[in-house]
Fold tRNA-specific 2-thiouridylase MnmA.
Amino acid sequence: MRVLAAMSGGVDSAVAAARAVDAGHDVVGVHLALSRAGGTLRTGSRGCCTIEDAMDARRAADRLGIPFYVWDFSERFRDDVIEDFVSEYRAGRTPNPCMRCNERIKFAAVLEKALDLGFDAVCTGHYALLRTGTDGTLELHRASDAAKDQSYVLGVLTADQLEHTLFPLGETPSKELVRQEAEARGLTVARKPDSHDICFIPDGDTRGWLAERVGAARGDIVDDSGTVVGSHEGAHAFTVGQRRGLSLGVPAADGKPRFVLEVRPVSNTVVVGPKEALAIAQISGARFTWAGAVPARREFECHVQIRAHADPVPATAVVSAALVTVTPDEPLDGVAPGQTAVLYDGTRVLGQFTIDHTVSAVPVTT
């Protein structure tokens, strides 16, 4: 097969590309330039897709003896990921930019261009497994290494995309083995730190970054009875479940900490209340996709995961033509509209939806 290896400049994508070469594929490496800031450099484990990362990817490709290119996707990344991130916060939702990047850049724009150029598949360093189901269709499953499993952020992939995707690291029992393999292959990225945080906010100051783009405006913080208990400099700085940084002037009657229950962008109001009010009895969303075959039944049991590193929770899903509604066996904690819910059947990813609406197990009275 002709395989396009997406090389981020990290150890995982370098080893994935190496394994694709070992498998006998005709491999070409590509690094995605997602920022027009030419002087951008990496700071420790913060950020990705920087000048330094591009150079690391090129060195790895040279070591593997494969052609290497840099593709400029900065405009598409700005429009589909960064602007989406900003608009979601403006609407009082909590987006996941990694999900949008996988959905709209790495496995949409890149795969589309790769297929147009005659490639058969895109290879990445994600930790996930592809298996053939009993009906002959490809299924997306959790990786062998539960600690590194990335199936959650890949839940946005469709059946067609899975048909043209390779995950060579999915069976690897641990990340340390990947690093050891990189050292044995002479790859200079063998001990490079993993990237974390939001790649386009490398200093980690999400609040300050959003303030520049959304604007800061003083507003009220109210409790679950509607009483003003504090003020803020911009509702965009808060997300459901947040406890720190509230600076409340009026203590709770029971003396217990209060958490963000709701963000209301229209009135620029933040609602706070007790931790138990964060319990969510039901979630639903209209923006959904299926990672493989569409579920045969309208109602089915599954597990739902609402964060990349959250534990999956047993639940019942009901699907209509326009909506997915999930009722967990036990309430979920601190769910925010804008988050992604990924549905599993055992290790298999069934699909995902963006959470539009939540039903509290302890309704807010305001």
In short: The longest strand covers residues 26-33. The CA atoms of residues 201 and 209 lie 7 Å apart. Residues 97-116 form the longest helix (20 residues).
